[in-house]
Amino acid sequence: MDLRQRIRGKFREPLLHFVAIGAMIFGVDRALGGTVEVNDPQTLHVTADMVEVLAARHVEKTGRSPDAATRRALVNELVRGEVLQRQARALGLDYGDLVVQRRLAQKMEFLLESQAKLEPPTDAQLLQWRDTHPERYRKSDRLRFEHRVFSTQRRGPTAEADAKIALAQIAEDPDSAATLGDPSAHGSNLSLDPVAIDRRFGPGFAERLQQLPPKDWHGPISSRRGVHLVRVIERIPGELASLDELRERLREDLLRDRRERAREAAIEALMEGYQIELDPGVLEPEGVA
Amino acid sequence: MISYRSLLLPLSLVAVPLACDAVDASATDARSTPATAPDTTASLAAASAPAAIPVDPAGLVAYTEDREPCADRNPLRNAYYGDLHVHTRYSFDAYLAGTSNDPFDAYTLAQADPVNLDFAGVTDHGEYLGETQLCTTPGSPAYDSAPCAIFRSNADVLGFATFGLALAQQDPDRSETICGPDDATCLDAAGDAWSATQLAAELAYDRSDACEFTSFVAYEYTGTTGGANLHRNVVFRNGNVPALPTSYFEAPVPQQLWQALEADCLDAPGGCDVLAIPHNSNASNGQMFALTYPDAADVLEQAEQASRRAALEPLMEIIQHKGASECRPGFSADEYCDFELLDEQDPCNGDGSGSGLQCAARSDYLRGALAGGLAEGQDLGINPLKLGVIASTDTHNGVPGVVDESQFEGHVGDTDDRRRDRLNDVPTFGPGGLAGVWAVENSRDAIFEAMQRRETFGTSGPRIAVRLFGGWDFEPALCSDPNLLEVGYAQGVPMGSDLDEPPVQGAQPRFVLVADQDQVPLQRAHIIKIWVDAQGQTHEEVYPLAGGDNDASVDPATCEPTGSGADTLCGVWTDTNFDPTVPAVYYARVLENPTCRWSAYDCNSFPALTRPRACDDVAQVIQERAWTSPVWYGGSL
After folding, report:
1. Backbone phi, then psi, for B532, in 5-degree steps?
2. What 3-state class would DSSP assign to B23?
3. B198 touches chain A (CB under 8 A)
4. What is the pTM of this model?
5. ipTM more than 0.90?
6. Which of A168, B239, B437, B570 has the most beta carbons within 10 angstroms of its beta carbon?
7. Who among B21, B71, B567 is closest to A225 (CB)?
8. Which carries the bigger pLDDT value, residue A45 or residue B201?
9. Would you say A188 and A225 are in contact if contact means Cβ atoms under 8 Å apart?
């Protein structure tokens, strides 16, 4: 199967994914997570299945299957842990424990996220998402240019004069440009966005190139690298990528955003059910009216 | 005893990032449900149409995938900068450290200001890819199992014992409790995480003719036999990749990894291509570049293994956050080797009999590895260690390419996000470096081909640009020629290549280097020659190539630089000791003026009285640098 298809098969249906998982959290937790079946709070029912799970863990840990005494000890440990846990909860000891709080909050966040009903976005919605976040989907402006550098480090104070002489020479014989200036590692034909131009030549260099009329040689222009003669070949404005090019990315980004929004909305709704009192001087958390 | 930091298994409170993108689908009906949403049908049909692989009329790139040819391409090649060593919360150790970025976030951050990388590959650990998802996704079949509980509770010793130590065992096993019979549960979950990794790379890749950003599907192989770092980043050429990463569990020795990559990728239909990039040989206790041939019955089988290795491993990562692997004082009489070394090591020529980080071996560093490769080439007829150079970060925060010393915020989640902690860490980590490639355009095929031909360089962070050409006919005044690059390619070979035979008796090879500064001026450049004499003895010599001592310095208290340096360094060097019968290898190194190291920024942020004691010992100044891939000369009689 084609890769895109394979990926889509697995990931294009977050809705199904999350509903199913959401439904499972409690079911599976009951089967595996709660170590003991809970019917009434004062009864502990140890199932045979549970003991088998414990025995299997013991084998994994020690490489031996537990004998009768060990099995008894395992059950004892289980019951003891459960009793202590219930008592601790009854006394509210779980409250204020950051580890417990984080873990439960994590499960709750997961549950809230998974309950969100996320419809597959339509093309119109995808376009709208793109157009409200153009900065994410716009290609950078690019400048295609040729330059000759006259290295200050190499030529010292004559770099600028040398560049001027060279410019005059190019005016007489444009083909002579290729024989003028100093070598550089990056070379003389570049196509870069303004951020990269400034990074390479120093702040403000891109701006100066933007102002040059294209096709002809101009200069001297100084940079961190020396003095330059520059010929702008073409300005390529950055365009917003098309829906066809972006469809999968837009869908992923939009669904991510919707999932996060759904979760935050659900948390906000829960928060509305609480009266939140703050000591004087305590800054209000965001989202609390 | 191996240090947990050698495996990057931080001890920390587990934060609560959730794994939403790659939950274990085997636990749901999603997997067996065909994609039926009406609005996906059209694009599904389009995607399953036969792919039209474009042909580049100029022959500059061999495309292996469906994409628009780049509008801008340069036969003289452009420098592109990237990070090919990036962990996200899909990596078990990054998750444990509280990292919440996933591969999708990592690719977004790679393109964001001020990083603006040209390319990146997310390399999550292939080991525990599934386990991490299972243990962190409430409702997964293994979520409530004992090992997962230990994983989440971050019980330091236990969590480490459960996960990290298995990667140091010779015959590692997955946890049956988590993975179920035949590891099926884990492999299933790993497949989901691997698919999400591929999707993240696909969505980040610019297939338009603007060619703004290239992503690579990749992962890290994390074998750590006996504490020796045998880690490799496995980078695929295009979207055609094996169904699952081959991890240490499937391939407990690297030779098995190479075999698997050959069988599952190179020999598989569909245009899969791959390379593996060893990293942190500095922590391999003599093992990374050891020349062993497990189960080879005769010299032919040895040669076969050596060829496979040479084909799959053309590069090494010369620096990353766990230190540099170029050379080391004690092995090399070169003051500039004392640079970002993994501390707590002795140059004891470790041969594998020690363990972990304590014992550095000559072959753990580029120079020793190149020398070993030359010698092996003489003996076996094949040089299995023909290593070019890149660098990367190894961030475990899912934040690629943040290599600016003043911006370093640690690399391993909440284990080193506090300044005091990272100053006191043993060994200390740094921000790592960047991979540089000389490629005709910014596409997967163009960058991958540049890596295969080793036309690459590594930097300790700055975007220095450096070229090295070797040849027989260069003019000594080549640095005055504005067309140096044209001449370099026309009359010589670029870094990563082999010199031809000498054209006439008595000819001496000549090398030309040209380097452009990034934000900081350059100070000096060296060329390093390594050779093996007729007695099989290896030698190395460091020659000044351009620049030299200058008046530059930096005040670590203010980080203000003084003095001047070079915007460009250019130099031509002739090997006047050349002996055509002796195989040799040459690479270059370019140093910036001194600047503040991350530790100076950290130390300066404390008031004098509360300054961590480590600030008295830790280096505060760094001379950032770039290393080229070598040029080889084979030796003939």
Report:
1. -120, 120
2. coil
3. yes
4. 0.86
5. no
6. B437
7. B567
8. B201
9. no
What pLDDT does A89 receive?
Answer: 86
Considering only residues 118 to 157 of chain A, which have any Cβ-Cβ distance to chain B shorter than 8 Å? 120-123, 139-140, 142, 144, 148-149, 151-154
Cα-based torsion angle of the residue sequence B446, B449, B453, B455 in order, rounded to the nearest 10 degrees: 30
Q: Is B78 helix (H, G, I), strand (E, B) or coil?
A: strand
Q: How close, in Å, is residue B34 to chain A by CA atoms?
A: 6
Is B490 an interface residue toward A (CB < 8 Å)? no
State the DSSP H helix or E strand holding residue B572, giving kind and residue range, or none if neither: strand B568-574
CA distance B304 to chain A (A): 32
Contact by Cβ (8 Å): A133, B49: no
In this model, does residue B30 exceed pLDDT 80? no
**CA proximity to A267, closest of A118, A110, A119:** A110
Tokens 């749901």 label which residue? B28
- Residue ranges of B 517-556 with Cβ closer than 8 A to chain A: 517-519
pLDDT at residue B357, rounded to an integer:
56
Between CA B598 and CA A14 the distance in angstroms is 42
| DSSP-derived 3-state class of residue B555 | strand
Kindly list the residues from chain A whose CB atom is less than 8 angstroms away from the CB atom of residue B20: 18, 110, 113, 259
B337 CB within 8 Å of a chain A CB: no
- Tally helices (H) and strands (E) across chain B: 16, 24
Are B338 and B253 within 8 A, CB to CB?
no
Nearest CA distance, B247 vs chain A (angstrom): 21
Give the confidence band of B442 by pLDDT, cuts at 50, 70, 90.
very high
Residue-wise burial string across B57-81, b where 16 or more C-beta atoms lie within 10 A, e elsewhere: eeebbebbbebebbebbbebbbbbb
Q: Closest residue of B to A107, CA-based?
A: B138
Over residues B231-235, the mean pLDDT reads 98
Q: How many CB atoms lie within 10 A of CB B24?
A: 27
Q: What is the pLDDT of residue A225?
A: 87
CA of B289, closest CA in chain A: separation in Å?
A: 32
Residue ranges of chain A with per-residue pLDDT less than 50: 1-38, 289
Question: How do beta strands B119-122 and B78-86 pair?
Answer: parallel
Look at residue A19 in the predicted model and tell me its pLDDT: 30
Q: Calculate ∠ Cα B175-B179-B185, nearest 5°.
A: 165
In chain B, which among 459-478 make CB contacts under 8 A with chain A? 463, 465-467, 478
Contact call for A106 and B16, based on CB within 8 A: yes
